[in-house]
Amino acid sequence: MQKKHGQSAGGHLNGSVQTNGGSGQLSDLSEGEAGDVLAPPAPDEGNATHLERRVGLFSGVALIVGTMIGSGIFVSPKGVLERTGSVGMCLVVWMGCGVLSTLGALAYAELGTVIPSSGAEYVYLLVGLGNLPAFVFSWVCSFVLKPSMLAIICLSFAEYLVEAFVEECEPPAQVVTLVGVLTIGGITFINCFSVTLATKVQNVFTAAKLIAIAIIVVGGMYSLAEGNTQYLRQGFEHTTSSVSDVATAFYSGLWAYDGWNNLNYVTEEIKNPSRNLPLAIIIGLPLVTACYLLVNISYLAVMSPIELLQSDAVAVTFGNRILGVMAWLMPLAVTMSTFGAANGTCFTSGRLCYAAARQGHLVDILSYVHVRRLTPSPALIFNAIIAIAMIVAGDIGSLIDFFSFTVWIFYGMAMAALIVMRRTKPDAPRPYKVPIVIPWLVLFMSIYLVVGPIIDAPQIEYLYALGFVLAGPLVYIPFVHYKWTPAFVGKTTLFFQKLLEVVPTSYDD
User: Do 459 and 142 meet the contact criterion of CB atoms below 8 Å apart?
Assistant: First the structure.
């Protein structure tokens, strides 16, 4: 039976006028039915309007590594060292954060193979916990977290790019803003134009940043071979005695690892996901952990802890000291790293909007794909528009600071969904299965990471962030639960269908 777009009993702003099959793999579910679906129906291969599996193992690893390794490790990896107080404890925290991120990613690997549908936390919450938690996640991420992440990364790219062409100490703010906006536009065009092109760009820039990391590591090892071990020999000297400081050090480190779940946003586009999703995680996470540890060791082989803490661009300082005439490689590395991270962020963010819209939790047009290029271009453009608005409005740094901690609420809820499905769906096919202690551990850690910052440094902005989260149900009740649709939505959807040349996806079940 082929389902028709516009029949979703889950409720949404249904504005589709021209139909071409169904609205998507998890669409057309009433409240309570979402939990009965563990896998999407197979796409109708005879109809071109569905996302194709074009992400292989190498591209999957590149997406994980490329989005996790942004500018932070090159620019200012001082948060962990500052809070731990010692070189030894700093490296222990970096390792611990890598282990915890790997455990979370392994739990996500099970979720991604049990529910092979794009959208990551959104679809896991939908199946495991129901419509409302999934909607709240899509509400917060689609309107704040994902666009602000893209905006900040593109602004970092713009700052380093503009700085290379100006002699002033600080690049002009207006120019940086303009370049940031153009960067978002360019990356969005790449992702709308072709999935293959977007993955190739990701592969190239991930390879470039790994080469840059290799240069740092080789330089650091050379310095150590010359006997410059005095800073590393300090070990655990001056380690903080504050449990709170160590906890916030973990918090800083975990944000450097954030992005370990990004491959789950594109599960439907992964070739052989039951194999390649867990394998990409098993390769990608230890690789990033090793990179972070080796880079920090290399920095401390060349600079003292005090110098590292005082540097605004650690990799640039490192390059000036050890690379000589080739020191220009480090600013180039930072620029390429941020561009690759922005491309990966754009790629995954669009899939969240796409998955939420076809379930009826966002307007229909965001669930459509380009009729020829088979990319979710409306969702990608929507994410870009909000990111550009944030750049133009300014002061997005404080926005992400106080909303970013809410991500761990949803990580914890995803772990809860996995635990619940172990009980409610015991017979569901599980090509990959983690020990149950892993999701429990990540769940407890996520609770601590949400509560910790509020207790350690309570600020009114945390209430603003939680207020936005709690506003989600107020939007959900009229538009999703009661399916109220404004009169103009139908005509608007048809207009954008024609303008963007997009159609609903279709499938058979």
Answer: no
The per-residue pLDDT for 8 is: 36
Residue with tokens 């230890």: 286
Give 209-256 pLDDT, tens digit per residue.
888 889 889 999 988 888 888 888 888 888 877 777 777 788 778 877
Helix (H) or strand (E) holding 119: none
Other CB atoms within 10 Å distance of the CB of residue 437: 9
The torsion region of residue 85 among left (phi > 0), alpha (psi -120 to 50) and beta comes to left
Distance between CA atoms of 19 and 263, rounded to whole angstroms? 30
Cα 217 to Cα 402: distance, rounded to the nearest angstrom = 34
For residues 410 and 125, the answer to whether their CB atoms sit within 8 Å is: yes
Does pTM surpass 0.70? yes
Give the C-alpha separation, 421 to 444, whole Å: 18
Let me know: does 142 contact 65? Beta carbons within 8 Å.
no
Dihedral of CA atoms 451, 455, 457, 462 in degrees, nearest 10, equals 50
Q: At residue 297, what are phi and psi to the nearest 5 degrees?
A: -65, -40
Between the two ends of the chain, the Cα-to-Cα distance in Å is 6
Q: Please answer whether residues 358 and 505 qualify as being in contact, where contact means their C-beta atoms are separated by less than 8 angstroms.
A: yes
Decide: helix, strand or coil at residue 503: strand
pLDDT score of 367: 85
